[in-house]
Specification:
By secondary structure, this protein is mainly alpha-helical. It has one domain (4-100). Helix content is 46%, strand content 7%. It contains 5 helices and 2 strands. Strands 1-2 form a two-stranded antiparallel sheet.
């Protein structure tokens, strides 16, 4: 089991990104639930991102911003990104997702169910 001390919190407020205004990408539990609902599996969302899917970039951006603005739609998230910003957005998404994940040190205990 992953202990609280192994959770990364480098950017507790999220990863700063300037689009239409200064925003913070943050992948909390709600963001991951939205991605799971949309893609069926969180890993599929990241596979699509790795393939360079523009649609997945928009979806991940939206999921990472809804902590700030719950009523934000995916189309609105897409409107605030220029084509010149796609690489910057992709990098910010990857940083924010990495920051949200527990740090794996290899010392975590595996909880066995009897």
């Amino acid at each position: 089991m992953v202990s609280g001390k192994n959770i990364r919190n480098k950017n507790i407020d999220g990863v700063k990104i300037v689009l239409d205004k200064e925003r913070y990408l943050k992948f909390d539990l709600n963001a991951f639930v939205e991605l799971e609902d949309k893609f069926g599996d969180i890993d599929k969302a990241f596979e699509q991102l790795q393939k360079g899917s523009i649609k997945s970039i928009r979806s991940l951006l939206w999921a990472g911003l809804i902590h700030e603005e719950e009523e934000l739609t995916e189309k609105e998230a897409g409107r605030i990104v220029g084509f010149n910003d796609i690489e910057k957005v992709s990098e910010a998404i990857m940083t924010a997702v990495t920051d949200a994940m527990p740090e794996v040190t290899g010392n975590e205990e595996i909880e066995e169910k009897n």
